[in-house]
Specification:
7 helices, single chain, 6-stranded antiparallel sheet, alpha+beta, globular
Length: 182
C-alpha cells in the first residue's frame, strides 16, 4: 500500500513538472516556413538575414501565469529558428518586472537560482545548461531606468549561430556580402 501510494505521488509530481513548461509550439532549428504558413511573412527587422515574430505570451502559453506584459519573440537567422526570448514589457515604473512574473516562471521551469533575500532588487543573470539546452535569465537596469528582463532559450549550436550573425553584422561583414550580390 505504501509503495503504491509513493508511486502515485511520484507520477503526479513528474506529470505536474512536465506540464509546467510553456509549449512554445516551435522548436529551435525549425525552418521559418513553418511560421510563415500560419502567420504570413515576418515583420521587417533591422539586422539583414534575421527575422523576429513577436507574440504575447498569453496567446502562446495560456494558464502559465505569463499573461500580462510578457512577449515571446521567435528569432530566426537565415530562415532557421535560433532562439526564443521571453521579454518583460516594462513601463516607466517597471510594473511587469516588479510582479516577478518572469523570474518566478524561470525558477518554476528551469530551477531555482540565488536572487538574494530581496528578489525585487536582483540584477544579473543566471545560465542554465542542461544537455543541449542553453537558457539564460537576465534582469538589468537599462535605458531610462527601465528593467531589461528576459528569458532566452536556445541550444549551444544555435546560440553560436546567432552570436556570429550579430557579430558579423556589427563588423560590417553582412552588409558587404549583401552589397556584393547586388
Amino acid at each position: 500500500m505504501f509503495l503504491r501510494l509513493n508511486i502515485i505521488l511520484i507520477s503526479l509530481l513528474i506529470s505536474a513538472a512536465a506540464h509546467a513548461k510553456c509549449n512554445v509550439i516551435y522548436d529551435i532549428g525549425d525552418n521559418l516556413s513553418k511560421m510563415e504558413k500560419e502567420y504570413g511573412p515576418p515583420p521587417p527587422y533591422r539586422y539583414p538575414g534575421m527575422n523576429i515574430y513577436p507574440f504575447f505570451a498569453k496567446d502562446i502559453c495560456p494558464g502559465e501565469g505569463l499573461d500580462e506584459g510578457i512577449m515571446i519573440e521567435y528569432r530566426f537567422v537565415n530562415n532557421t529558428l535560433v532562439a526564443i526570448n521571453f521579454v518583460a514589457l516594462n513601463d516607466e515604473n517597471n510594473n511587469i518586472s516588479k510582479k516577478l512574473t518572469l523570474m518566478k516562471y524561470t525558477k518554476k521551469v528551469y530551477g531555482d537560482f540565488d536572487t538574494t533575500q530581496n528578489p525585487d532588487s536582483f540584477t544579473g543573470f543566471h545560465i542554465f545548461e542542461k544537455s543541449d539546452e542553453f537558457v539564460v535569465y537576465q534582469r538589468f537596469l537599462g535605458e531610462e531606468n527601465k528593467i531589461d528582463e528576459q528569458l532566452y532559450l536556445s541550444t549551444k549550436k544555435y546560440d553560436q549561430i546567432l552570436a556570429e550573425h550579430i557579430n558579423n553584422f556589427e563588423l560590417g561583414k553582412i552588409e558587404e556580402e549583401l552589397d556584393k550580390s547586388q
